[in-house]
Design brief:
heterodimer, A: mainly alpha, Arc Repressor Mutant, subunit A, 10 helices, about 75% helix, B: 8-stranded antiparallel beta sheet, 6-stranded mixed beta sheet, 16 strands
């Protein structure tokens, strides 16, 4: 379990951008996994299975938060002093403006594009594991990744021109 | 077209992404595996706290003993919330109490149906379904379509399913209930599809099996096990046991769908994804 908790937590964080929520989702993921162990195919790697659970839970949490608490959450995020935490704690991105810029661009992609980029780049999963986590074929991951990169490239060209360099293929 | 430059850059810069420190999840859940604690607001983020408060409020408004149940986890799809708590033996007796007045008094329209699910042994104590006749609002499909204000879509699968045998419309929600009867009789549903408007609907459950799945790319929940339904009758709420089967819950736009049947998940998904105007 400990070997997978980092990946699960990080994926949840990529979805929710809130470390407390991500920690909660990580816990929930492992609880669900334990309760569903009888359904787990031990012939398959565990990490993609856990990540798929985490992604679903995080996505649902994100919707719930959006429905019930986005306004309040936004308030707390915009006013770091309200929570007694620094803005850096909320974003974790301040150390690299370029990495942050790229991250901001990724955030603006659609859910499907973000998912495959999260898994492939931010969690550095091989294509085979990303495919299992997404429940699709490896070829589909590659094509989705290519489409996602295309849309990210367009976004950079139009809205993040200062990120243009070194991104042409 | 390939995007090798962007690929290289993402590989490089994603490594610089600063994640918060990973918490000790293993240690944190050890206690939860042994004992399920009630979360306190102190441990919750503001949004999470709001969610818990909303759930707790709904439970109190419904004023059933299950409100005393441990509310420590909640999942939601559309207007349906699934509270995961400890199973309570008293739930069945509780649902036999007339809760309809409470619903009215609380002005909490529950789409005419309140689900108080108990997926455990107490099911045998539940009165068996005598009829759907006591469910208010029976009408024609055309009339329900006219009243609902949203498009009622019907399953195109299985191909021989045909039109629903019975249709109910209830203004709260609004809710449309489509029932396909068992060949044995119109009072015995084999498949029912609830189409729920924006009404809050408390869906309390401790399902023996609860799976995350997708309907048309959208998150859905699949719960297995018998469950209790309390229908709004002409004069009050009466408990009826509708389906000793499974439920698939998903949302599309402003509508929430609940497909109840005894079918396996794969078949339920095929039905859900076959809805057509």
């Amino acid at each position: 379990m400990r070997q997978h908790q980092e990946g699960v937590f990080r994926l949840a964080y990529l979805h929710l951008e809130d470390s407390e929520e991500a920690a909660d989702i990580a816990q929930e993921t492992f609880l669900r996994a334990f309760r569903s162990l009888h359904r787990y195919d031990s012939a398959r790697p565990m990490r993609p299975w856990l990540l798929s659970i985490a992604a679903n839970l995080a996505r649902n949490r994100r919707r719930s938060l959006g429905r019930y608490g986005s306004a309040l959450q936004r308030y707390f995020r915009l006013d770091p002093e309200a929570t007694g935490r620094s803005r850096e704690e909320h974003t974790g991105l301040e150390h690299s403006q370029r990495a942050q810029g790229l991250w901001q661009a990724v955030r603006r992609l659609g859910s499907s594009d973000r998912q495959v980029i999260h898994l492939r780049y931010y969690l550095q999963l091989p294509v085979s594991e990303a495919a299992q986590a997404l429940g699709v074929a490896e070829g589909t991951v590659k094509s989705r990744l290519n489409r996602a990169l295309g849309r990210l490239q367009q976004l950079i060209e139009s809205d993040y021109p200062w990120l243009r360099e070194d991104t042409s293929g | 077209m390939t995007y090798e430059g962007l690929d290289r850059r993402l590989q490089r810069e994603a490594l610089q992404f600063e994640f918060p420190p990973t918490p000790d999840v293993a240690n944190a859940i050890r206690g939860r595996l042994e004992e399920k604690p009630v979360p306190t607001l102190r441990t919750l983020t503001p949004a999470r706290a709001l969610l818990v408060l909303a759930l707790a409020t709904a439970a109190v408004l419904l004023a059933v003993p299950s409100a005393r149940a441990t509310i420590f986890e909640a999942l939601q799809v559309g207007v349906v919330r699934i509270l995961l708590g400890e199973p309570e033996a008293e739930q069945v007796a509780a649902t036999a109490t007339p809760a309809g007045g409470v619903l009215d008094a609380a002005s909490t329209p529950a789409a005419g149906v309140r689900e108080d699910s108990s997926f455990g042994p107490p099911v045998t104590q539940v009165p068996q379904p005598s009829a759907l006749d006591e469910l208010a609002g029976e009408t024609s499909l055309e009339e329900a379509q006219r009243l609902a204000g949203f498009e009622i879509r019907l399953p195109a699968y299985p191909p021989d399913l045909g039109a629903p045998d019975r249709v109910f419309y209830q203004p709260m929600g609004p809710t449309v209930i489509l029932v396909w009867a068992d060949p044995g009789g119109l009072n015995r549903p084999r498949l029912s599809l609830f189409i729920l408007g924006k009404t809050v609907l408390l869906d309390k459950a401790e399902p023996t099996v609860l799976e995350l799945t997708e309907v048309g790319g959208e998150l859905a929940y699949w719960a297995e096990g018998p469950y209790m339904l309390a229908f709004r009758g002409e004069r009050d709420l009466k408990l009826r046991y509708l389906v000793q089967g499974h439920v698939l819950i998903w949302a599309e736009g402003a509508l929430t769908y609940r497909l109840e049947s005894g079918l396996p998940l794969e078949e339920a998904l095929r039905i859900a994804e076959s809805l057509r105007p």
